[in-house]
Automatic annotation (TrEMBL), chains A, B:
UniProt-annotated binding residues for substrate: 25-29, 74, 149, 204, 318
UniProt-recorded name of the protein: Uroporphyrinogen decarboxylase
Source domain of life: Bacteria
Swiss-Prot/TrEMBL keywords: Cytoplasm, Decarboxylase, Lyase, Porphyrin biosynthesis
Pathway where it operates: Porphyrin-containing compound metabolism; protoporphyrin-IX biosynthesis; coproporphyrinogen-III from 5-aminolevulinate: step 4/4
Record gene name: hemE
Assembly and interaction partners: Homodimer.
Lineage: Bacteria, Bacillati, Bacillota, Bacilli, Bacillales
Originating organism: Tumebacillus amylolyticus
Length: 347, 347
């Protein structure tokens, strides 16, 4: 089987014969096969068994013929070895019984040593590197998003405790950003050294911050992280939901790909960030519940916008969710490939 | 006591001696007095007792010296008489046991007759018109936000059912928008006829839609509503959380005031909507948990931006929440008045 590097070629703005596509949460609860595995194993347990974790990672590639795999893991996995008692509770999300409340709590976090702390994750990556015929994307959560769980003690809708710390105890906040920034740099280097061909930083909840708060409390850490990963030699993707208002700061970052959520059009995103970056996005995943003609029309619109300039990867504007029919994901993938092939061959 | 019409004067871009301010949810659970009342009465019960409802509405004006009152009510109150079995459940929000699932469900909704259906609300407004020395703001929920509860059956984070209806059954969706649009026009006319000096349409959850979906599925109804209220002779405010990406459509609406959430700066909002509108906003309410010097610096920044052009009302970018200290709200109000007086007198 030949290696399909369309995902990487498109990001590098090289010639492609179709638009590459992968989906956030493409391994997940909308898959019957995955649900069967989840009857026996928790998320954390799957991540501890490299063969199983590799299988879960590969399954959507086989099922839908997507152009990239993303490591099956969770953003909280590398946080646990720092000394954070985190559990992923089904139906809730990450729950932490020792939330960060003081400078001492931050100082007690120890540095990540991937080889010692996360051997199963690295072994999974090495297996996947051999078995996959598409690029493997590694990932980490971004500091704000990780910190929001660590400070709130679990998922939040409004991030009151997190923001209160930012505004009231900026020294503690910055110390936490520093620790998490270090962790992310170390972790990403290790993922790439073991076989990841690209990385994505998930800043899922960053959209809760104003432009000014982002600039003041988070942006310097993001800048340091991406500068620290400059020499990795793999493309770096930065994604967060609800980030249209932050994109004109993102364009100052050392990244290759801007992940766009569904709220703003790709045309608008391109207007804001310019033509330096590849774009990745941005179908509202709820369109996968729509009739196929409606789904296809929306996907075609996004492909047409994406293809206006080189550097485009089709994705959702947010992750797949349990109600999505598996057949719709396969259908969409096929449509994206066929439609974009037609459009590209017309050139 | 003289009538303080600074709120209306500022919206009309007339001369003012201070920046007017009111807060979304200024009557609410952060107030000890309100919590005492809530021990005996539910939200719905308070709304049925005009003297009590008027008292709850007035209390933040007395407590903080804000420049406008907003009717104490809930966006679901006028939905109940249409035939929707809605209850406001403490700690959850509106819960509906007969959600909208079909065209027949929509057709079964009957028109609102405010005099018959909501006599307590109108009596409350008449009492307030006599007792208040500041303008009274009436309000309604916007069609998308109301529909999201009616279709989901309760609060939602992702609005899957609502969007699925939009995408899959656009005729049912439009019929629902039409019914709710009619209700809102009728309700707002009645509120103004009974004494409201301004109205605000809350589209709390509209930020979940993409620009294109908003344009297709919601904007025509918003256009019809505000055109239907053109001759009311009172200023119309439109607010939704997380709406930076929608503002350049909002500028096509017959409104006088654009409510801005905290994510984008007022400068940016003005760049998008132009100088036709007054702006209202946009402090992240979590700043009320910060030390006063941090709170004041942020408020001063917003006032400086707001005063760059005539037409500004200080507000939060979202509602007050239970953890906010009452004293911080009083302090902020005083600061806004003092600081803006100084800035205005320097001109």
């Amino acid at each position: 089987m030949t290696f399909n590097d369309t995902f990487l070629r498109s990001i590098r703005k090289e010639s492609i014969d179709h638009v590459p596509v992968w989906y956030m949460r493409q391994a997940g609860r909308y898959q019957k096969e995955y649900l069967k595995i989840k009857e026996k194993y928790s998320l954390m347990q799957i991540c501890e068994i490299p063969d199983l974790c590799a299988e879960v990672t590969i399954s959507p590639v086989r099922q839908h013929n997507v152009d990239a795999a993303i490591l099956y893991s969770d953003i909280m996995i590398p946080v646990k070895p720092l000394g954070v008692n985190v559990d992923i509770v089904a139906g809730i999300g990450p729950v932490i019984d020792n939330p960060i409340r003081s400078l001492a709590d931050v100082q007690a976090l120890r540095p990540l040593e991937p080889d010692n702390d996360l051997p199963a994750t690295l072994e999974t990556i090495r297996i996947l590197k051999k078995e996959l015929n598409v690029p493997l994307i590694g990932f980490a959560g971004a500091p704000f998003t990780l910190a929001s769980y660590m400070v709130e003690g679990g998922p939040s809708r409004e991030y009151h405790k997190t923001k209160k710390m930012m505004y009231s105890q900026p020294d503690i906040w910055q110390a936490l950003m520093d620790k998490l920034g270090d962790m992310i740099i170390t972790y990403m280097k290790s993922q790439v050294a073991n076989g990841c061909a690209a990385i994505q930083i998930f800043d899922s909840w960053i959209g809760a911050l104003s432009q000014d708060d982002y600039r003041r409390y988070v942006f310097p850490t993001m800048k340091r992280i991406f500068e620290g990963l400059k020499d990795l030699g793999v493309p770096k993707i930065y994604f967060g939901a609800n980030t249209g208002h932050l994109l004109d700061q993102w364009k100052e970052l050392d990244i290759e790909v801007v992940g766009v959520d569904w709220r703003i059009g790709l045309d608008r995103a391109r207007t804001i960030v310019g033509d330096k970056f590849a774009l990745q996005g941005n179908l509202d995943p709820v369109y996968l519940l729509a009739p196929y003609d409606v789904l296809e029309a929306e996907a075609a619109k996004i492909i047409d916008q994406g293809l206006k300039q080189p550097g485009f990867v089709f994705n959702l504007g947010h992750g797949l969710f349990p109600d999505v029919p598996e057949a719709a994901v396969t259908h969409l993938t096929q449509f994206i490939h066929d439609y974009s092939k037609r459009r590209l061959s017309e050139r």
